[in-house]
Amino acid sequence: MKTILWATLTANGNYSQSSPENPPKQEALDDFFAQAQAAGNFIVGRKTFEGMRGNGGPGPFAHIDIVVVSRSAAAIQGVKVVGSPEEALGYLKEKGYQSALISGGADIHNSFLDQNLVDEVIFNVTPVMEGKGLNLLIDTEHYQVKQVQLLDCKPLGGGVVQLRYAIDRTVG
User: Is the dihedral of CA 169, 68, 16, 31 positive or negative?
Assistant: First the structure.
C-alpha cells in the first residue's frame, strides 16, 4: 500500500498554525479534499480530527473512510479508531485500498515518518512565515538523513506552492 503524508507548511518550514488572523488557505483545503477523495480515506490524529470536525456532521467527508489514531479514545461515531500507525494501515489495506492519505497532526506525521511508513510527501507551502511552530521529525532519537526525489512542483493559487516528493524507504 502506498502511503502519502499531506501537510501544509509555512514558507519557513513550520507546520502552518491556523488562527483567526491566519486562516487556512482555501487552495490548500481544496487540495486536501481532492487528495482525500482520490484516496478514498485519510488517517488523522484525535486532536486534529476533533478540530476538523468542528460542530459535527460528516461535511465533505461523508463518503471517505476516516481512521483516527489515538491511544486514549475508545470509539468515535462514524470513524474507525485504532491505536497505532501500523493498525491504521492494516485496516485500510484489509478494506482493499491501494493508498492511504496521512493527513494530520504533527505527532501522527512524525510517528509514520519515524517508523519508515511513508512513501510520498505532499507539502503545500503557504506564503506566510511564522516565528513559532511545529516541525516534521524523521527520527526523534538520532540525526537521520532521508533521501527524497522531487516528483512534482506546481502552484495551487493564492501564493500556495505544492511540492511532492518520493521518500527512499530503503535507508533508515
Answer: positive
Other C-beta atoms closer than 10 Å to the C-beta of 58 total 12
Residues present in the chain in total: 172
Q: Closest Cα partner for 27 from 154, 166, 132? A: 154
Say if CB 85 and CB 117 are below 8 A apart: yes
Q: Grid coordinates in use for 122?
A: 505532499
Give the tens place of pLDDT for each residue, 32-54: 999 999 999 999 998 888 877 75
DSSP state of 24: P
CA dist., res. 109 & res. 73, Å (int) = 18
Which grid coordinates belong to 5?
503524508
pLDDT digits (tens, 9 = 90+) for 73-107: 778 888 999 999 999 999 999 999 999 999 987 88
* 106-114 helix and 85-94 helix, angle to the nearest 10 degrees: 80
Compute CA distances 118 → 4, 88, 161, whole Å: 6, 13, 21
Check: CB of residue 41 under 8 Å from CB of residue 64: yes
